[in-house]
Write a structure and sequence with these properties.
The protein starts with 14 loop residues before the first helix and ends with a helix. It contains 13 helices and no strands. The longest helix has 43 residues. It is mostly helical. The protein is 76% helix and 0% strand. The protein has one domain. It is a multi-pass membrane protein.
Length: 336
């Protein structure tokens, strides 16, 4: 049997676009680092470094372990969604795809994570129409889990987090729209009537929208929300531990709420990886809790390194493995 390889936009990503994304990511990172450095200098380098000196390698390892727990739990959710769209069994394959895609977190809108869809097509032959909704459901499941955690934090912590309720409501609304097959199909149809061009593209988008109906099983939704909530709670708990170690215990649920709110707010800015927005929100909210600026800056810098940048680091290690194995599988299919 001979299978013709169909090129896709992701297979032939132009070098200028990749360079543009890398430059954008570098510029945003430089801006964030410059801002953090400026805040640290304003409060005195000695105070900020003194806060960081409270942490040892064991604390760092604990923070990374909790982040890794988040990534693995969400990988299991990816495997769960994959079975719903007809992916053949392959837990380690799905974990490899999910972790490898983290290299693309810091692309605009995290669209670079669609590379997972390319790996799926190469290794299983699953069409784009059936596999692309995995990306939508993964993003939506994260929004739901984080919104629910934020609501729990608001209910269980003392005081309030400014702007948390609108952000949680917006996250839930976005997830509801993105996962409603009929609504998404209607929006695509409306978009085609407005644009009046590219019927083939809009037809494929409608097909993808209809696939979302496969995820409406109550057991699948409950399991996906549980896995996502446990994962994000692990990172929220890591932030709580970090503040305790820095001598700034503000309570578990308040720390979890600030972490989740800042992560959501950063994502809503549309910046790659939420860079800039998440850090600004976190520092501002910690300052409102009465924490010294040197503690807020140190805590923000450490938690972002052990979450966002740790994920990108894992992605950098797994990405070439996933790419090589997917190519090997695709070549083997073509040779048969």
């Amino acid at each position: 049997m001979t299978m013709t390889k169909i090129p896709s936009a992701s297979d032939a990503a132009p070098a200028p676009r990749r360079l543009r994304d890398a430059l954008l990511m570098g510029a945003l990172l430089s801006l964030v680092l410059a801002s953090l450095a400026g805040l640290a200098a304003a409060t005195g380098w000695d105070q900020t470094m003194g806060q960081l000196a409270r942490l040892g390698w064991m604390q760092g390892a604990a923070l990374l372990a909790l982040s890794l727990a988040n990534y693995l739990l969400r990988s299991l959710r990816w495997n769960l969604f994959g079975r719903r769209v007809g992916l053949p069994p392959g837990l380690w394959r799905d974990i490899r795809h999910y972790l490898g895609g983290f290299l693309m977190i810091a692309t605009p809108g995290r669209l670079g994570e669609l590379v997972r869809v390319r790996w799926i097509r190469r290794e299983t032959g699953l069409s784009l129409d059936r596999s692309a909704p995995l990306f939508v459901m993964d993003r939506a499941a994260d929004l739901v889990a984080m919104a629910l955690i934020l609501c729990a934090a608001l209910a269980l912590s003392s005081g309030h987090i400014a702007g948390a309720i609108p952000v949680a409501a917006l996250a839930l609304a976005a997830a509801a729209v993105a996962t409603h097959g009929r609504l998404m199909s209607a929006l695509v149809t409306r978009g085609y009537r407005i644009v009046g061009r590219w019927p083939r593209l809009f037809g494929r988008l409608r097909g993808m929208a209809r696939t979302l109906g496969q995820f409406t099983d109550a057991r699948v939704l409950a399991a996906s929300i549980l896995l996502g909530s446990l994962g994000w709670m692990a990172e929220g708990y890591a932030f709580h531990l970090l503040l305790v170690w820095l001598g700034a215990d503000i309570g578990l649920w308040k720390a979890v709420g600030i972490f989740v709110f800042a992560t959501l707010a950063g994502g809503l800015t549309g910046a790659p990886g939420g860079l800039g927005g998440a850090e600004a929100a976190m520092i501002a909210l910690l300052a409102l809790e009465g924490l010294p600026l040197e503690t807020s800056v140190a805590a923000t810098a450490v938690i972002r390194v052990t979450t966002l940048w740790f994920a990108i680091g894992i992605g950098a290690l797994v990405f070439p493995v996933a790419e090589r194995m997917s190519k090997r599988t695709a070549d083997a299919v073509e040779d048969r």
